[in-house]
Design goal:
The protein is mostly helical. The chain is built from 20 helices and no strands.
Length: 479
């Protein structure tokens, strides 16, 4: 994420008439990081509320509930790059406040939803707000911070994502004790406070060299393609894998993906510049991002569902139980950073993928009907957390290391898009494997199969990861 500094810095012009940012950099960073944290938190906080949402909406199964997660990640992924280019052109402060307002209002609507599909629809609106405010907030960090604080500020901003992953399940568990609707209502006071503070302290900023609108048609085609693929995975076991609706979803996914590729090749401002994919390290970073995000999202939800539905844990107990793994992430992200001076980044990421997959397999081999968290879940989950710490920050930070400076911002946004797509596919794959098992024996078998399959995908990520190591160059990358 820190690579976004390079491309925004030359073209971001904090106006001299608005010195509030440089005088109060700590307040500005707090406001921007808080909003980014809120958007990231919503990806992780909802998992723990699944059981309570399902009970509130009678007759709603796992396949329907999965769209509460997937709708958010798919829309967020598809719009992240185009939204970033729009706010660069028309103004980052206005984009940030607009995205934050949309996200906050949509959070109220989510809390008031009277049916699961209304909730899914409002989650889509939330994702639109998140896709706008995320790149706008990072652009404002870059353009507002004094030069001597810029790199450190970007690292702090980027760390909010890891913090959201660590706190999300625990915070969600606490809120669900009152009602699952508080999972969304908690965004309201934070959003209102950030809106007021942002309107006062943020400086206007935009990229004066940005011209033309981004490929919005391509973004829509990408969202439809991933959505259709997700639909086929989620509903395949229930409708039947040869059902005309499932076959139709595969066809729609293929046709819209082809349309996305064609649109990207022809549009002057594509979602993914085809030239980026000719950079080997960047291409493999995105492949690895998808292959790592699939087991990451799938395993998180699998562990939560096992704890709640098989072992009968409450939401709050589940939240704290799954928060142990993410606590390993900042520790081993620092380890990965220190290792990166001597060990190729692809090797570090490969090790992280292998450890995450190993953690899931260890859980699959350990769990049984009698709850014993300390011996059956915790060891594998801690190992998985170590893997996340080694892999995820390294994927995000190194994806643009081999790109030209003017493409670094787009490159960082694309790899984050790839990660969100992988998360949607991971949830869908888990739902497809679990189906609707009846009785402990069937549930145990289905969960074991899920953990093993997710471990196999993590292995594929480990095999792809070495390709993301940039070739040796005479000069050091710009950092």
């Amino acid at each position: 994420m820190a690579d976004l500094i390079r491309s925004d810095s030359p073209s971001a012009h904090p106006p001299a008439a608005a010195p509030a940012g440089p005088r109060r950099p700590g307040v500005v960073l707090l406001v921007l990081s808080l909003a980014a944290f809120m958007a990231s938190l919503d990806v992780f906080i909802v998992n723990v509320a699944f059981d309570d949402i399902g009970r509130d909406f009678d007759g709603v199964g796992l396949s329907e509930l999965s769209w509460v997660l997937n709708a958010y990640t798919i829309i967020y992924a598809a719009l992240l790059v185009p939204a970033g280019r729009i706010v660069d052109r028309y103004g980052r402060k206005g984009g940030f406040l607009t995205g934050l307002a949309i996200f906050t209002v949509a959070s109220v609507a989510c809390a008031a939803a009277q049916g699961v599909w209304w909730l899914v629809a409002f989650r889509c609106v939330q994702a639109i707000g998140a896709a706008i405010l995320t790149p706008a907030s990072l652009g404002l960090v870059v353009s507002t911070m004094p030069a001597e604080l810029r790199a450190r500020s970007v690292r702090i901003w980027a760390a909010t994502g890891a913090l959201a992953a660590a706190l999300g399940p625990a915070v969600g568990g606490l809120l669900v004790e009152a009602s699952w609707r508080w999972v969304f209502l908690v965004n309201v006071p934070v959003g209102v406070a950030a809106l007021i503070a942002g309107a006062v302290v943020l400086s206007r900023s935009r990229n004066d060299t940005a011209t033309g609108l981004p490929d919005l048609l391509g973004a829509v085609l990408l969202a439809v393609s991933i959505g259709a693929l997700t639909l086929g995975l989620v509903e395949g076991s229930e409708w039947g894998w040869t059902d005309p609706k499932i076959v139709g979803s595969w066809i729609i996914a293929a046709v819209t993906l082809a349309g996305f590729v064609l649109s990207s090749a022809r549009h002057p401002e594509p979602v993914i510049d085809p030239a980026l994919l000719r950079v080997r390290a960047f291409t493999f970073a995105n492949i690895t991002a998808v292959l790592f995000a699939i087991p990451f999202a799938g395993a998180l939800l699998a562990n939560i569902l096992w704890l709640q539905q098989v072992w009968g844990y409450s939401a709050i107990k589940t939240g704290f139980a799954v928060s142990t793994g993410p606590l390993m992430v900042p520790i081993f992200a620092a380890v990965a950073h220190r290792l990166s001076a001597r060990v190729p980044v692809g090797s570090i990421v490969a090790a992280g993928c292998l450890l995450f997959g190993l953690g899931g397999v260890l859980i699959a081999m350990s769990v049984d009907q009698t709850p014993d968290y300390a011996t059956e879940i915790l060891p594998g989950w801690l190992i998985g957390g170590v893997g996340v710490g080694l892999a995820l920050p390294s994927i995000l930070s190194s994806a643009t290391a081999d790109l030209p400076l003017h493409q670094a911002a787009t490159g960082s946004a694309v790899v984050n898009m790839s990660r969100q797509i992988g998360m949607a596919l991971g949830v869908s794959l888990l739902v497809a494997i679990l189906g609707t098992p009846v009785g402990y024996a069937a549930a145990h078998s289905a969960f074991q199969e899920a953990w093993w399959v997710l471990g196999a995908v993590a292995l594929l990520g480990a095999l792809a990861a070495p390709g993301m190591t940039p070739p040796r160059r005479a000069s050091s990358p710009v950092g």
